[in-house]
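pls design
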């Protein structure tokens, strides 16, 4: 979907999913100076957490970012409404280190969105191969949507997706996988 179309779609209204979360999940998190930040705060699991309160339009009010303090890999982010209601959380896992630019990127990103009646929706992104700092290729094709064989194209701005996804039968995350409530 085009970004402008997605912002006004039924799917956006139902999921509260923000495309920038995929960029954040890669570990390219923006900590804007116009936001209020707290941390890094130590956690019992050895990681650290940074809490961010945003007042910018279109941004989720509160974000909790969990990082590895040694590698600075982003492992989880959770997003909350001003009243503390959990909107969604992202798990970034199986990081791979790239020596030349000195970065680590996740090979898998799970986006979890709790539903209103207790059910949970999950979107999983498995990264195949990253091209880092690369502008190789035909410039006319660099910004075209990929069309891999056997993958149906769906315009997210045309309504809700009703077909089950193959991985939907996988184990839903348990209570221990979910971030703690925010107060």
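designed seq:
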């Amino acid at each position: 979907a085009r970004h402008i179309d997605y912002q006004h779609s039924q799917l956006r209204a139902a999921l509260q999913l923000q495309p920038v979360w995929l960029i954040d999940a890669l570990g390219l998190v923006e900590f804007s100076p116009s936001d209020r930040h707290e941390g890094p705060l130590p956690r019992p699991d050895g990681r650290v957490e940074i809490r961010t309160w945003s007042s910018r339009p279109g941004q989720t009010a509160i974000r909790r970012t969990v990082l590895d303090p040694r590698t600075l890999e982003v492992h989880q982010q959770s997003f909350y409404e001003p009243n503390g209601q959990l909107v969604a959380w992202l798990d970034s896992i199986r990081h791979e280190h790239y020596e030349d630019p000195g970065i680590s990127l996740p090979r898998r990103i799970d986006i979890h969105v709790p539903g209103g009646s207790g059910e949970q929706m999950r979107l999983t992104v498995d990264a195949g191969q990253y091209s880092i700092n690369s502008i190789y290729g035909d410039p006319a094709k660099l910004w075209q949507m990929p069309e891999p064989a056997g993958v149906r194209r769906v315009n997210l701005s045309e309504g809700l997706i009703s077909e089950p996804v193959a991985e939907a039968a996988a184990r839903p995350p348990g209570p221990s996988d979910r971030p703690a409530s925010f107060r």
